[in-house]
Write a structure and sequence with these properties.
It is a single chain. The protein has 208 residues and is α+β, with helices and mostly antiparallel strands. 57% of the residues lie in helices and 9% in strands. It has a four-stranded mixed β-sheet with strand order 2-1-3-4. The longest helix is centred in the middle third of the chain and has 29 residues. It starts with a strand and ends with a helix. Bound molecules: glutathione. The site of glutathione has 9 residues, from loops.
Length: 208
């Protein structure tokens, strides 16, 4: 049987990491194709839309991270079968994608402009999405975003919250989530503590 190949950049985050974690948690073997930034220029034209992640399976190729998350979630049992629960799962993934895109757009800005835009994002859309995501989590029981169990939505939110709290985003205070959405910190810790997630990052020696 063919093994799925997930291609993404060589770091433990970003748009490809939720699908990597889903494969790991579901104990489904996959080829973890990690592209260095140096190699990207040559690889880019071979991708459907000039961007990563890309998933290849049984001779076919598909792009777009949340679509890949859904597909992998179905393969490994981390995506709801119920249509309403699936829509809730998609809701959380898409809102993270929307606000994450706003942050990504600041990466290459000159320092003063980056500071202005990130401070405005932190006090505006980021805080808004954090508080609303927390509300949604609480409305669905407080532990998971959909289906009363772990889904790919939890993985995507976990990775975003981990990134926001990492201190690696200049001008976005690393304690923002703790201040405005503490239930999302608990959720982040819950996902980070899953035995498969702990073992995965311990083996990668990145600590997650
Ligand atoms: N909407 C796409 C966005 C993909 C995207 O922008 N990927 C970034 C990495 S997270 C990328 O490939 N950047 C390199 C480039 O555009 O050359 C998705 O969700 O997969």
């Amino acid at each position: 049987m063919s093994v799925p190949k997930l291609t993404y950049f060589d770091f433990d985050g970003g748009r490809g990491e939720a699908a990597r974690l889903a494969f790991v948690i579901g104990a489904v073997p996959f080829i973890d194709d990690r592209v260095s930034f140096a190699a990207w220029k040559d690889r880019k034209p071979q991708t459907p839309f000039g961007a990563l992640p890309v998933l290849e399976f049984e001779g076919r190729t598909v792009a777009q991270s949340n679509g890949i998350n859904r597909y992998v979630g179905k393969l490994v049992g981390l995506y709801p079968a119920d249509p309403w629960q699936a829509a809730l799962c998609d809701e959380a993934m898409d809102v993270v994608e929307d606000v994450g895109g706003k942050i990504s757009a600041t990466f290459d800005l000159p320092s003063a402009e980056k500071k202005a835009q990130r401070e405005a994002l932190a006090s505006g859309p980021i805080t808004f999405v954090l508080t609303r995501l927390q509300d949604r989590l609480e409305a669905h029981g407080g532990s998971y975003f959909a289906d009363d169990r772990l889904t790919v939505a939890d993985l995507k939110v976990f990775l975003w919250i981990r990134h926001l709290r990492s201190g690696s985003l200049d001008y976005i205070s690393s304690d923002l989530v703790d201040r405005v959405a503490p239930r999302l910190v608990e959720h982040c810790d819950r996902v980070r503590s899953l035995p498969e997630v702990k073992a995965y990052y311990a083996a990668r020696q990145t600590g997650g």
